[in-house]
């Protein structure tokens, strides 16, 4: 089940007047990753100060009890519910379908991932319900990258593309499911020296042979495969291919340094610092207090890490940009033109006012046009139905 702290994500606050005025009407859009729907939380600037994300904790109190038709809630200055508003169309989606298989959800995981099953096998299904241009590009890149990565014992195994069954649009992909959870989930799990060796060898392979920079190496993106007892790196949505998508401060060498420091010390503060504000000296120049069981002395890990960093410093940039086995894939397709005429309203004489523009989901549903429906009931309700049924 999705951890409560990962379930809701605010897209920020919108103020209809001066934000310093406590009475200013404020609207906050909040994504519920459990139900895959966007809910607007309305109130005043007194309750919703900028950048504090109060709206997520307020919505968390009501999210499981709202009707699926609810698209917005209004709360008073104490955060108490005073009203709801709805659309005319239900948008429930409890499973995903491709033309060949039906994916049945077994468990909802964080970061837009579900554990699903088909043909008596379990796989991880990663999807992107956000239609924002940047997210679409990231999803397209990750899908193509994973499908083209050569087999490697420390990489997640790509399974298949998932399409919806009406217009055959790509809605995500599946990979091998590895049970046991992320390294970040279990700070008491013993860590082996060979796993550090595997991680650095993998980073060299990705960076220097394929020209791929993962750019998000962290304990939350590392697993230990119980079948092979090897470390596994996943989640490539921030990856760069050569110069394309390359960002300052997110190189994989730095990622390994901060990751090893967090694994050994269980200190998450350095990894919480924005990438553009941190450098490896913050952790390399201090003593590491070991708070995790290791199969070797901390000095062995640190000496190996220092030697690896020195070897990479001399050749990393040039070899990364001139990797001999660089992966390629087509550009993101141009989306269909959904600029269509729609009814904007009526004149005083009762004549329809037409406007041409981007077709919204609401307009499409009102006209009986097809839209893929992401929304689904909350996990808590599905569990209750399973118990009562």
UniProtKB/TrEMBL annotation:
Residues 70-389 form the Protein kinase domain. It is found in: Chromosome, Telomere. Gene3D superfamilies: Transferase(Phosphotransferase) domain 1 (1.10.510.10). One of its GO terms (molecular function) is ATP binding. It is an enzyme of class 2 (transferase). Keywords: Chromosome, Telomere. One of its GO terms (cellular component) is chromosome, telomeric region. SMART domains: S_TKc (SM00220). The keyword Isomerase does not apply. Its main location: nucleus. PROSITE patterns: PROTEIN_KINASE_DOM, PROTEIN_KINASE_TYR. Its EC number is 2.7.11.1. InterPro entries: Kinase-like_dom_sf, Prot_kinase_dom, Tyr_kinase_AS. It catalyses: L-seryl-[protein] + ATP = O-phospho-L-seryl-[protein] + ADP + H(+); L-threonyl-[protein] + ATP = O-phospho-L-threonyl-[protein] + ADP + H(+). It comes from the Eukaryota. The keyword Transport does not apply. Component of the EKC/KEOPS complex that is required for the formation of a threonylcarbamoyl group on adenosine at position 37 (t(6)A37) in tRNAs that read codons beginning with adenine. The complex is probably involved in the transfer of the threonylcarbamoyl moiety of threonylcarbamoyl-AMP (TC-AMP) to the N6 group of A37. BUD32 has ATPase activity in the context of the EKC/KEOPS complex and likely plays a supporting role to the catalytic subunit KAE1. The EKC/KEOPS complex also promotes both telomere uncapping and telomere elongation. Component of the EKC/KEOPS complex composed of at least BUD32, CGI121, GON7, KAE1 and PCC1; the whole complex dimerizes. This is EKC/KEOPS complex subunit BUD32.
């Amino acid at each position: 089940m999705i951890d409560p702290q990962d379930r809701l994500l605010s897209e920020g606050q919108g103020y209809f007047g001066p934000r310093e005025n406590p009475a200013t009407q404020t609207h906050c859009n909040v994504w519920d990753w459990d139900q895959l729907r966007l809910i607007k939380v309305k109130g005043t600037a007194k309750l919703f100060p900028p950048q504090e994300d109060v709206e997520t904790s307020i919505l968390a109190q009501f999210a499981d009890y709202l009707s699926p038709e609810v698209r917005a809630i209004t709360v008073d200055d104490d955060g108490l519910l005073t009203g709801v508003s709805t659309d005319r169309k239900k948008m429930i989606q409890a499973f995903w379908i491709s033309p060949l298989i039906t994916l049945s959800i077994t468990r909802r995981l964080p970061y837009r991932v579900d554990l699903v099953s088909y043909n008596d096998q379990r796989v991880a299904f990663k999807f992107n319900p956000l239609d924002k241009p940047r997210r679409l590009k990231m999803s397209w890149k990750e899908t193509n990258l994973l499908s083209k990565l050569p087999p490697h014992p420390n990489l997640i195994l790509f399974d298949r593309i998932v399409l919806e069954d009406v217009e055959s649009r790509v809605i995500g992909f599946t990979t091998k499911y590895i049970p046991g959870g992320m390294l970040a989930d279990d700070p008491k799990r013993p860590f082996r020296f060979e796993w550090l060796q595997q991680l650095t060898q993998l980073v060299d392979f990705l960076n220097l042979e394929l020209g791929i920079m993962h750019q998000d190496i962290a304990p939350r993106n590392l697993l230990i495969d119980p079948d092979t007892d090897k470390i596994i790196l996943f989640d490539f949505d921030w990856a760069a291919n050569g110069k394309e998508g390359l960002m300052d401060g997110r190189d994989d060498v730095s990622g390994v340094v901060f990751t090893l420091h967090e694994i050994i010390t269980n200190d998450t503060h350095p990894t919480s610092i924005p990438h553009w504000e941190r450098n490896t000296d913050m952790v390399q120049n201090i003593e590491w207090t070991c708070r995790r069981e290791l199969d070797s002395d901390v000095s062995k890990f640190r000496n190996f890490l220092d030697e690896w960093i020195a070897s990479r410093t001399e050749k990393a940039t040039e070899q990364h940009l001139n990797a001999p086995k660089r992966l390629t894939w087509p550009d993101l397709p141009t989306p269909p033109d959904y600029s269509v005429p729609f009814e904007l309203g009526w004149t005083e004489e009762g004549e329809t006012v037409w406007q041409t523009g981007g077709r919204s989901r609401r307009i499409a549903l009102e006209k009986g046009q097809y839209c893929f429906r992401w929304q689904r009931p909350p996990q808590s309700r599905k569990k209750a139905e399973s118990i009562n049924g």
